[in-house]
Amino acid sequence: xxxxxQTMYLVRHGETAWSRSGQHTGITDLPLTELGEKQAAHLxxxxxxxxxxxxxxxxxxxxKRTCALAGFGEVVQPDTNLVExxxxxxxxxxSAEIHQRRPGWQIFKDGCPGGESPEQAAARADLVLQQVRxxxxxxxxxxxxxxxxxxxxxxxxxxxxAGRFFALDTASVSVLAYEGMKxxxxxxxxxxxxxxxx
Length: 198
Hints:
By secondary structure, this protein is of the alpha/beta class. Helix content is 33%, strand content 17%.
């Protein structure tokens, strides 16, 4: 099953007001900013010419809008498992504000009180990957920052705490694949070249 997948393209949604300010945006359903809309539109050229057997998106407005502006609104399948990490009591707070409450906090190690633990986020990611690995062909996914990082960790078989090393910008494209159709690898991470001078 896992050997049939060629490539998984992972796209983070375009900018929102809270991604710009650094506030954690889980269940708060914010729209894209004007810049976020432009970023999403530039994804159309970046992804043009690639054939996808399936396109999946988070059910958040920011991810669905990014998907639509990237040109995949007519073929996408929404998936509730692709929503962002549930931040619980940390929803809307910046990392600096969270560290004032809890010094040394790391989401991939500590999770969020009243929200999701790393184990819970990983379980959702596993459900997504189980679906992805059953598809014969390229898959395109639109999701959010922390959950996309968890998808990559689960793809590679890394411990959750390694997520702190995987920075991910808005409207970035990452590519996860297999080497020799057996070993999960990162082919490309956090590519934003399509946004330069736009």
